[in-house]
Amino acid sequence: MIKLDPPSVDDVYAARERIRSFVIKTPILESPHLNKQLNGRLLVKAEPLQKSGSFKFRGALNTLLQLSNTERDSGVIAYSSGNHAQGVALAAKILGIRATILMPTDAPVIKVENTKSYGAEVVHFDRYTESREEIGERLCQERGSVLVKPYDDARVIAGQGTVGLEINEQLAEIGVTPDLAIVPCGGGGLISGVSLALKSVTSNLSIYSAEPEHYDDTAMSLTAGEIVSVDPNQASICDALLAPQPGNLTFPINRSLLSGGLVVDEDEVRNAVREAFSRLKLVVEPGGAVALAAALSKKIDVAGKTVVVVCSGGNIDQALFANILTP
Amino acid sequence: MIKLDPPSVDDVYAARERIRSFVIKTPILESPHLNKQLNGRLLVKAEPLQKSGSFKFRGALNTLLQLSNTERDSGVIAYSSGNHAQGVALAAKILGIRATILMPTDAPVIKVENTKSYGAEVVHFDRYTESREEIGERLCQERGSVLVKPYDDARVIAGQGTVGLEINEQLAEIGVTPDLAIVPCGGGGLISGVSLALKSVTSNLSIYSAEPEHYDDTAMSLTAGEIVSVDPNQASICDALLAPQPGNLTFPINRSLLSGGLVVDEDEVRNAVREAFSRLKLVVEPGGAVALAAALSKKIDVAGKTVVVVCSGGNIDQALFANILTP
Fold first, then answer.
1. Which positions ≥6 away from B33 have C-beta within 8 Å?
2. Chain B interface residues facing chain A, Cβ-Cβ under 8 Å?
3. pTM of this structure
């Protein structure tokens, strides 16, 4: 495995040009009801509307577009509970690259089906008893394929950071300077890339990570000043955010740029999914809704402030969504 | 009541400039799954993401921005099952105008609550036994207020047509020329305005209206070559599309520009709502999904073609949405 240097904001700008023609510039949504609830201004970057249903398509595409012809021919491998899987599978399909995806046996059905429908081969593993990293490394060796890591890769972080560059552009268009940003955090790829982008334009912006209860490893690590792990064997409705510790590449960036970490419980997440449905007409999966949940449950004081929140994905099974809508 | 001349495409362009800073330029969404289903290319204009949850905000705003100071001071009145109500109420709130909205007693709860939350006074009527037009006229006379009609007003049609101008711009950006467009149709305000806009750029485009069963008055009128009414006392899941006949201003435009009318049944609408949920991450109400339903159920052959479909609104009660997701 090649150890990559951390990305710079220039890498994020380069990623933006590289992937521009493939991605949807997702809108920023706003609701008078939500603004009233918060007594502030809430601007929601709607990444569920991205191709593959989450921001993960950006980082996957930025990585695959930088592979050599030899690497492309040998195919790619990724491990993921689902959104990275779909992002890599769709990017590989578009570029004509063979993809093999390792997914846990308890991944949401929609994520497995979508990954397969993009033409990828899906290999299942038990996330409680098997190491996806080990299986991934073995498959890479057996097949000579390239591993596309979910967050600890400068190309992936730079790709996810294009979300932040779009936010910069979109806020400039409406003449708004944000006071705060809250971004969902699993391994930290999205928030580290977004923070590089946002801070390059608004240096005094405060950025907070949002995580679900039991998986607040980034919040704890930020407090400790070093990487701290959580028990990875806990159940959570936020299947997209189950990384047990911050990444080796992402954490130094986040430690340098974030103001702190916010943590939300399941009821707060469910409420955020309902508010996104009724106020924004946006389908958001639980893991994608943690930053919105943190804002709506006022984990930090946003009164009188302009807050940018990223909703990061919308790949949720019908039955769970229906369940959340009928509490 | 002043009889207004029909709008021209220049009125639509003027509306675009007038309302530009207030509206969301809603994205065009696309799904590889839906393209595969249709063996064509489906581009979905996502108006549920518009402020107030539907395109109706555009026409309401374009109208209110053209009122005289005296008219503004006397307040506005509108009758609506809900989306026009919310559009007028929000536009009035933004401009500091008093709004009174007539709504049927069986309007969806979310639409009534949202209308009230925008600060409008809501007056209820029974749509099976009372005439909203008569109550509206009476209230206008009593209060000296201005009636904002839901579709038969050139300012409203021009405002809705800005959806079409945005589609023109967005397709030009990705270098696409559409073969077909399908647009939901109640009284015909949206489709007449959109058709003016689309045909001004792509004159050989074929445009079809989409209506729910029992409310296919535009399809029948297009076939007959004159305005035909349906029985207005039939139940439909598509509460936004219950106009019993085409408008006097909208029908001549539609007769001149449309290629025909498509009709979908309730199962097809429910399926379209589910597909928008799972493939586009978009919340679409039944009436807003009829054009998508017409495409997905292949009411017209779209194989090998590029089809633009407008999803027009997303104001649906939680319980109904949950019901549709668990068939």
1. A114, A117, B279
2. 24-27, 29-30, 32-33, 36, 46, 48-49, 51, 53, 90, 93, 110, 114, 117-118, 274, 277-278, 280-284, 314, 318-319, 321-323, 325-326
3. 0.94
Residue in A36, A117, A282 nearest the CB of B281: A282
Is the domain of A86 the same as that of A45?
no
- Two structure tokens written together for B149: 């009609």
Record the tokens describing residue A297, joined without a space. Answer: 């449950």
Side chain identity at residue B91, one-letter code: A
Contact A51 B33 (CB under 8 A): no
**CA A23 from centre of chain:** 15
Q: Using CA atoms in the order A296, A300, A306, A309, what is the torsion angle rounded to 10 degrees?
A: -60
Question: A143-183, pLDDT tens digit by residue?
Answer: 889 999 999 999 999 999 999 999 999 999 999 999 999 99
Reported confidence tier of residue B122, pLDDT bands at 50, 70, 90: very high
CA-closest candidate to residue B156, choices B64, B252, B26: B64
Which residue from A minimizes the CA distance to B115?
A33
pLDDT on residue B143: 86
Residue B4: pLDDT band by 50, 70, 90 thresholds?
A: low
Rounded to the nearest angstrom, the gap between the alpha carbon of residue B176 and the centroid of all alpha carbons in its chain is: 24
Pull the structure tokens for residue B317: 């009660």
Q: What average pLDDT score do residues B189-206 get?
A: 97
In CATH, what number is assigned to the domain containing residue B77?
A: 3.40.50.1100
Structure ipTM: 0.93
Domain that holds residue A300: 9-54+153-325
Q: Residue A214: what pLDDT?
A: 96
Task: Calculate the dihedral angle through the C-alpha atoms of B65, B70, B71, B73, rounding to the nearest 10 degrees.
Answer: 90
Classify residue A172: in a domain, yes or no. Answer: yes
- Point out the residue among B30, B32, B282 whose CB comes nearest to the CB of A283: B282
Domain C-terminal end among B147, B168, B187: B147
Domain co-membership, A39 together with A75:
no
Same domain membership, residue A35 and residue A174: yes
- How many structural domains comprise chain B? 2
Asked if residue A141 and residue A192 are part of one domain, the reply reads no
Residues 6 or more apart in contact with residue B113 via CB below 8 angstroms: none
What phi-psi label fits residue B119: left (phi over 0), alpha (psi between -120 and 50 degrees) or beta? left
Q: Which residues contact A62 (CB under 8 A, 6 or more apart)?
A: A15, A18, A19, A155, A156, A158, A159, A162
Residue B302 makes CB contacts below 8 A (sequence gap 6+) with B38, B39, B40, B42, B180, B295
Cβ neighbours of residue A231 under 8 Å, at least 6 residues apart?
A214, A244
Residue B184 shares a structural domain with residue B139:
no
Question: For an interface test with A, which of B281, B316, B317 has the most A Cβ atoms less than 10 Å from its Cβ?
Answer: B281
Angle at A321 between CA B321 and CA A234, to 5 degrees: 170
In a domain? residue A255: yes
A131 and A244 housed in the same domain: no
Strand-strand pairing, A121-125 and A206-212: unpaired
Give the amino acid at A201. Answer: V
Place of tokens 């038969």: B152
Q: From B147, B182, B203, give the residue that closes a domain.
A: B147
Q: Is residue B265 part of a domain?
A: yes
Tell me, yes or no, whether A237 lies in a domain: yes
Structure confidence at residue B109 (pLDDT): 86
